[in-house]
Amino acid sequence: MDERGLAPRDLQSLEDIAKLPFSFKSDLRDMYPFGLLASPMSEVVRLHASSGTTGKPNVVAYTASDIAVWTNAMERCFAACGVHRGDIIQNAYGYGLFTGGLGAHYGAESIGATVIPISGGNTQRQIMVMKDFGVTVICCTPSYFVHLIEEAARMGVDLKELPLRAGIFGAEPWTENMRQRIQAESGIKAYDIYGLSEIVGPGVAMECHCQCGPHILEDYFYPEIVDPATGEVLGEGAEGELVLTTLCKQAMPMIRYRTRDITALTSERCECGRTLRRIKRISRRCDDMFIIRGVNVYPSQIEAALLRVEGTLPHYQIILTKNKGLDEMEVRIEVTSDVFSDTIGAMESLQQKISHSIETTVGIRANVRLVSPRSIQRSEGKAKRVIDQRNL
Amino acid sequence: MKLKQLSLFLENKPGALGAPMRVLAAAGLNITTMSLADTQDFGILRLIVREWEKALALLQQNGFVVNVTDVIAIEVSDKPGGLAEILTPIENSGINVEYMYAFTLKKGDKGVLVFRFDNPDRALTVLKQHKINVVGQIELFKRVGKTDG
Question: Is residue A2 one of the residues assigned to a domain?
Fold first, then answer.
């Protein structure tokens, strides 16, 4: 603030927040793990982490009051789409360092609903539980739910005949087409929830029953839309990068955090009566991060994993596809004479080493495919590292 | 006594094998013998070429990943038990055969096989001790005859 000639008295209204400098994901990396803590560790009751741009995760911290804010935010998110006491919620977001599982869990319990903390994975058990426990609401990534729909059909379970009525879907970008498809095939209402661990986790914004874009919980999280190139604040309706400032967080407050998510803000009246502004569906980002099965992945992480195995960085490309509704990642790597061997065993062991290195870095299995030199297309200037064929 | 083998990385897709063949054909280089190992995604083509240095340079210029590997050509009796006879001392010495393939040429009742051992130098010593006939480069290409490159 001194650098900008700002004193605390210069902050009189919310608009004055725009005078403050931005914070970036790289700030979390630079201050890893606890450098951004604004509370003593003795006040911190919870730590979560999300993938960083390199091998190290980004750590986020919560005081008891932060957990209460988060819980309340999630309660309001559930309430916004008509989830209440008496609902049986299958929480298929991952529990653990990822904020999705516990974030949804606290909010759902607090609202008085019955929570099944099933976490992600084991699709057949998910469907069995959904059917046998009379689940009414499910929380997971939209792509995982598409997979559940397909697997249920294979198992002879008709989701339309189950009590399931709503899905709270987030942690990855999805489209209106995908919503229509989910609703048509499963007979439930599909709601979009938005959040990111640097701000709090899920619960930053949530759709109401009108399904016309997530309402930002502006009393906790102050939104701005800026030009991603210049940082200039853009007006109502203009598309740009979402920037968020936490208004109530203690352990790790964020000032003007650049989310890299591209959207627009609208204050148009919503039929539900909420005056909280809404964001447009987020369908792209202004960096090269991609989300696979709800996990944030940066090409730089893949590069770090390749470097660890090969010593030098080969030409590579990441191909994202969908197989039976599930995201799949293939990493194509050009073979160089440094790593080439005349025996199949050595080449397969190289493939396995790379695959293992990627999995330990990003937590997602990748199919590693060795390809001929110069077979990956070179584009002018910046290499196109990620080919997304998932047809969002 | 060791032979130089060229190993090429090929993707497992139509046209992958033809491309390096055309490079060698254009330069008038003949392949004395070869083997192709395949997996679902890729293959490794192993070539014995008389003018291997020229072939190596040409293939590399044309963007192929090529390595040079030491292999050993061994004379084997073309009769039941001929190969087993040779393998016994190799196995007893703890040397591993990574892969092997055959030459098309034959002299009398003897065939010639190409072996890729994990330790070629030790394999040579063992073969010598057991008086097994290793065919060197000069002798080999003499047998192949004048038709080759």
Answer: no
